[in-house]
Amino acid sequence: MPECYTPMPTDWSRALAVVAHPDDLEYGGSGAIARWTAEGRSVAYLLATRGEAGIDTLPPEKCGPLREAEQRAAAAEVGVSVVEFLDHPDGLVEYGVPLRRDIAEAIRRHRPELVVTSNHRERWPGGGLNMADHRAVGLATLDAVRDAANRWLFPDAGEPWDGVRWVAIAASPLAGHAVDITAMFDRAVASLRAHQAYLAGLRGAMADPEAFLRPVAEAVGAGLPGAELGVAFELIDL
């Protein structure tokens, strides 16, 4: 992690967060979203899958609806009421034109200034290997921002929108910006805790929201002047 983070920009009013699975935003980004909504900003969620392959003990037809409900509950904990799901297959999301089109259509509909997505790079900040769905959705989101602005692409997917000013990538090994979530940390923990069925199937630190989120937030906060706890992003300025 860098020794000093730059604060995220604040001169915006609408954001769209695009990730692969229920729980992706809660493992790191939801504290920032809680702060943004508390400040009166609008944030909507778009998930590429319903997380139907995410719990080993539940078949997909039961798991998907359960995880969708848990994601809506998690979003409510941080002030988000708009949660949309695509139907790309959990674990088998493919980067390509169909995924780019779906995300571009959502960008045109929500007209965000900030787009948030998850790490599309091969590795996590700690060096662990990232999974295919995250990489596909993150990269497709970056490309869909440009697609959404081009009126000749996907003409049946709404009016063009060229108002995205930044893409913020959560859990990136190249993060250099951050948000102070000291006052919002409890809400971040509550949002992850809302994924009860998913957490019940995990082991280790990832199964304990407080144990997982606090050390990461403390490490970021140590590098963000004036903060005790923070969430870091790689910020792409468009």
Automatic annotation (TrEMBL):
SUPFAM superfamilies: LmbE-like (SSF102588). InterPro entries: GlcNAc_PI_deacetylase-related, LmbE-like_dom_sf. One of its GO terms (molecular function) is hydrolase activity, acting on carbon-nitrogen (but not peptide) bonds, in linear amides. Keywords: Zinc. Signal peptide: none annotated. The keyword Protein biosynthesis does not apply. The keyword Zinc applies. It holds the Pfam family PIG-L. It comes from the Bacteria. This is GlcNAc-PI de-N-acetylase. It comes from Pseudonocardia asaccharolytica DSM 44247 = NBRC 16224.
